[in-house]
Amino acid sequence: MITTITLNAAIDQVYEVDSLAVGGTNRVSTIIQEAGGKGINVAKVLKRSGADVTVGGFAGGINGERIRQLLLKKSIPSELIQVEGESRVCLTVLDSKKSKVTELLESGPQITKQEWQSMLNWIEDQSQSVKWFALSGSLPKGLPTTAYAELIDIINANGAKAILDSSGDALQNGIKAKPYAIKPNEFEIATILGKATVNETDLLDVGKRFVDDGVEHVCFSLGEKGAIFVNQEGYFKADAPKVEVINTVGSGDAFVGGLLYGLANGEEPLIAYKRALACGSVNAMYSKIGFIDSQQVEELMAQITIIKL
Ligand SMILES: Nc1ncnc2c1ncn2[C@@H]1O[C@H](COP(=O)(O)OP(=O)(O)OP(=O)(O)O)[C@@H](O)[C@H]1O
Ligand SMILES: O=P(O)(O)OC[C@@]1(O)O[C@H](CO)[C@@H](O)[C@@H]1O
């Protein structure tokens, strides 16, 4: 059993337009509406991989109700804590002609101290029986930047394992609590290091530092360039498989879903890493966010070579 946490759940709306005219009138040719936010996307990928997964986090208002309905439609059990505020809508606009993706992300509800306490109590309860957690996405207003660190402390104390995928101070503070794995992208790691960009040496150095500090798997996702992995055995690198890209939004979440599926099912780390890459790349082949086809994942896994650096 795996639980994914989305503190800032969303209705993910994808609009496909022929050619996006900023400042003009745009007719939408295709609409996709799904439950989203990073942890929910991880759950969708896990569900499609055949895992037993539950969704946790916060949801409120009419949008919160819709998120619950959309999860129900996918037969994904949710235990989202009801909050006073309104959950957000995140809009992705796909420009078919230019193959460009534009994202408009609302900031989400304000979480009260009481609501946060309910989450801490719920995690304490869950991590008595669930052994694997994904903690993903931005923090809604009202939560301290130590929010993920607090959750990881509870999960670790109960002998469970957490994979953290966030950004900024929430990620930096979360890492200090020693999650089992992390998945920053280049931009997220550059922000932590206070640099505009990062090169391979930066990634290897900071990855080694995180592993020495107690993170078991440091997974840097590098978009179409693939990924770099650092663990106690050393440094590993793999190119992403070449695919026909439609929408890369959610590829990071699919990567986390693949990684979590592999590790939770006892796969060797290098196999789980291949699964993570393949899930990320399959997600990029579809308009839907957080979508994979298991057979395509297996096919892409067979094409991936991981080299030890
Ligand atoms: N253009 C692409 N072609 C092939 N594979 C891709 C492409 N973009 C992403 N991927 C796959 O998805 C994985 C994760 O992508 P990426 O590093 O962009 O995640 P991310 O920045 O966290 O994404 P998001 O925040 O939108 O979910 C990559 O490691 C790769 O395997
Ligand atoms: O604001 P966050 O939580 O960082 O990101 C939210 C989001 O862009 O991430 C997912 C794609 O990774 C989408 O489902 C969602 O809209």
UniProtKB/TrEMBL annotation:
PANTHER family per record: 1-PHOSPHOFRUCTOKINASE-RELATED, ATP-DEPENDENT 6-PHOSPHOFRUCTOKINASE ISOZYME 2
GO cellular component terms, A-Z: cytosol
GO terms, biological process: carbohydrate catabolic process; D-tagatose 6-phosphate catabolic process; lactose metabolic process; small molecule metabolic process
Gene3D superfamilies noted in UniProt: 3.40.1190.20
Full protein name: Tagatose-6-phosphate kinase
Cited Pfam families: PfkB
Protein source organism: Viridibacillus arvi
Enzyme Commission designation: 2.7.1.144
Enzyme class: transferase
Entry keyword ATP-binding: yes
GO molecular function, one term: tagatose-6-phosphate kinase activity
Function: Catalyzes the ATP-dependent phosphorylation of fructose-l-phosphate to fructose-l,6-bisphosphate.
